[in-house]
From TrEMBL:
Membrane topology type: Multi-pass membrane protein
CDD domains: MFS_MFSD7 (cd17399)
Originating species: Onychostoma macrolepis
GO molecular function, one term: transmembrane transporter activity
UniProt cross-references to Pfam families, sorted A to Z: MFS_1 (PF07690)
Domain of life: Eukaryota
InterPro entries (alphabetical): FLVCR1-2_SLC49-like, MFS, MFS_dom, MFS_trans_sf
Protein name, per record: Major facilitator superfamily (MFS) profile domain-containing protein
Major facilitator superfamily (MFS) profile domain segment(s): 42-458
Region (Disordered): 468-487
Subcellular localization: Membrane
Keywords on record: Membrane, Transmembrane, Transmembrane helix
GO cellular component: membrane
Amino acid sequence: MDDGSAETEALVGNSSEDVRSHLDSRNTATTKFKVYKRRWFILFVLCLLNCSNAMSWLTFAPVADQTAQYLRVSLNLVNWLSLVYVVVAIFFSLITTWVLDTLGLRFSLIMGSWLNMLGAVLRVIGMLNCIPEWAMFPVVMGGQTLCAFAQPLVIFAPTKLAALWFPDHQRATANMMASMANTVGLLLANIFSPMIISYTSTLFMLLLIYAIPAIVACFLATAGIRERVPPTPPSASMVTSSSEPFLQGVKLLMTNKAYMVLLVCFGSGIGVFTCFSTLLEQILCVKGYSNDFAGVCGAVAIVFGVLGAFLLGLYVDKTKKFTEVTKINMCLTSLGCSVFAVVSQLSEQKFIIGAVCAWFGFFGYSVYPIAMELGVECSYPVGEATSSGLIFVSGQIQAALYLLLLQALAKPMVDSPLSVCATGADANLSWSVPVLVMAGLCTLGTCCFVGFFHTDYRRLRAEATASPNTVTDQSTGGDTWANSTDA
């Protein structure tokens, strides 16, 4: 057994304080930091988990009207299959941030993978012929709730993984890849949910297919992730990251003006995008646009969002212009949201609606990982999971409020000759006022952020002060997933 293996085994199972004390003492003795090839495997597992969980979240939104028919429930109850993610996140996210920063990344990913897998399987069970009709929706909702409990565990992890395993010049890119995997999951749900329903005319096959990646991710996380921290830190910031106790870290965040502005304003943006993803099909079907077209619009927004995130990740890794990129993108997102509020109420305008969705996605979805990194920078040395988790909680709280508000503002239409909503009259709602309100909320959050957010990059400053010499580790690191030379 090599030195890296012995050191790893000594670290695994210790408390987070012991691990940090070990790293602190080791950092004082050397300025050399190492990176390990197996960081890419852990990143892959997290990407698969995020993708699978996002597919579970948005399974029903692109086919909301058909889901209401199959489950024999109202459209509002179908919306709760998505909204349950928001509600669970609000009450569970603070615990999740403590779990990530105290019990570690490995524990969080394995626990999240099991919750996600069990939820996906329970959803399939809910559609079996032996289940009474009255029990179908409660069983499916139970599975959806388990998946919702898994979401904070995996969606808060990218900043933690980037800080623990990646050097400073790869952190934004690693965070982008893990965060955008969630967006890719939304893309796949927008594409495959309408497609599978149209070919099979049954929810059972749809849910069975979506359970496969959840099962694979659970196996890989359980069998493949063996360490809670790398044997040697990749950068100086890892040594002092999470050095503040959880409750003390929360108190520091609550008194950090820049962080609070980001918490409220970017949280509002997350809320708006949750409303957009959840209600897109319902908004468009009233104007004569099919589920397939709504799915394509959602997919286009996500594809351009992933493209934008990739470009922004590379740019920010080189320039470190977190604030400038976030402000510009939020302004352009507000513009896209305002245009969508107008064109979504027009019929036979597929090209324009598709182009607006692409704009909305390119500048809106893409800024998410950058804003999360910005939250870490302005709140350092508070734990990464705590800083990013509270922003996500803010977004989910605002998303819940926004969804309830927008649905309350949507009024029944007396006459809707263009409607192709499958559930009939109860789905023929006028969304002209709600989409304008959504655009107003997006614009208000952007204006407040641009005007009031100013910060210093604390983590980068700490690393510049340390001036470490990062080297590439050539050991196997002692686990079964890293048998090749690290690079």
